[in-house]
Amino acid sequence: MRKNELKVGIAQIAPELGNVTANLTKHLAYITQARDEGVELLLFPELSMTGYSLREQTLAVAMRSDDALLAELAQAAGEMAVCFGFVEEAAPGEFYNAQGMVKNGQLIHLHRKLNLPNYGGLEEAKWYSKGQSLVPCEPFAGWLTHTLICADLWNPALPHLAMLDKPSLLLAPVNSAADIVSDEFSNPQGWTTNTDFISMTYGVPLLMANSCAREGNSQFWGGSRIMDAFGNCIAQAGGEEALISGVVRLADTREARFQLPTIRDADNRLVLELLQQRIGG
């Protein structure tokens, strides 16, 4: 039976860099807290099981999607849908910045980051392979869900492609440090603008989960936020570890997309023709 509303939550945590065992313990604690508060879908930040600035530690923390630690996390999730970040080893030496979703003891979805940033203090293309697919999942009836990891949302084509599936929910796990791009570029302000725009333009509830860890000279600033389908922020974290939650409703998505029918009016055949003209296809 379709759920008309969903209680969603974000676990804004400070992962210990490279300490998967300690981070699993933290995940399990937040899952328990979220369950006690009635959360039905819980989102952790990008690379929440490992921390972000791994570099040469990538080899030590990479896991296959059927790893025993991830199986333990899946069992703990129970009927809650839990979305978490980890380094996936798909084949020997093939690593992805990945976000998994588990429910009822099973991995029900896996998204591999598509847009690997390689500018400022970011060098993900040095360590990871690029994901090659953008596929939604439906953890609850009526709640088709897409996941885009951090810089995926800064390639405007990727949120648009995701929204062509008409999802009811968009998950945005990120690792954003205040000055990792440049001294002039404000990541906190940039993420506010980005998530406000996507949520309002497409009429989609959006969860942005950031880390609040300190890794060397990088301070991840937190500020995780839950947006409703009208682009309103209904819950926001500060700079410390926290569990935030809110209720999102299909009725709001229905009304928001009636008022602003972005997906209906996108004219994607024309967009495709114009794109082919520019790339010579």
From TrEMBL:
Residue ranges annotated for the CN hydrolase domain, each copy included: 6-250
Protein origin, superkingdom: Bacteria
UniProt KW keywords: Hydrolase
Pfam families (alphabetical): CN_hydrolase
Signal peptide coordinates: none
Keyword flag Hydrolase: yes
Transmembrane segments: none
Keyword Hydrolase recorded: yes
Name used for this protein in its record: NAD+ synthetase
Taxonomic lineage from the root: Bacteria, Pseudomonadati, Pseudomonadota, Gammaproteobacteria, Vibrionales
